[in-house]
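Justification of computing resources. Each target in the renewal requires a structure prediction run like the one illustrated here; the chain below, 106 residues long, is used simply to show the kind of job we budget for.
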Amino acid sequence: MYGFKEVDVQGLEQLEASSDCMLIDVRTDAEVSRGGIEGAVHIPLHLLPLKAQDLPNDRPVVFYCQSGGRSAQACAFVASKGISEVYNLQGGIMGWIRAGKPLSSI
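Resulting structure tokens:
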């Protein structure tokens, strides 16, 4: 497995407060239509190989999906391409909702 870290909802909030992190939602269009995390960029997992070269390597990049599985795949992929500070949101959007956090349109 390539080098990425797991982060929980509280850890994501700390990352957002302390850095200019990039938050990426790798869910499908249908999933995203039900709401996401404010400020996230939508890059469906199947398009990530085409977009990986556009990701920053000078700030944290955090991926999420519905429950954390697809975003872990995304993390491993971009870490293998040399992105150095990569995080997977534990529990995905479901963990976000369980923590009582709001959804927004992205």
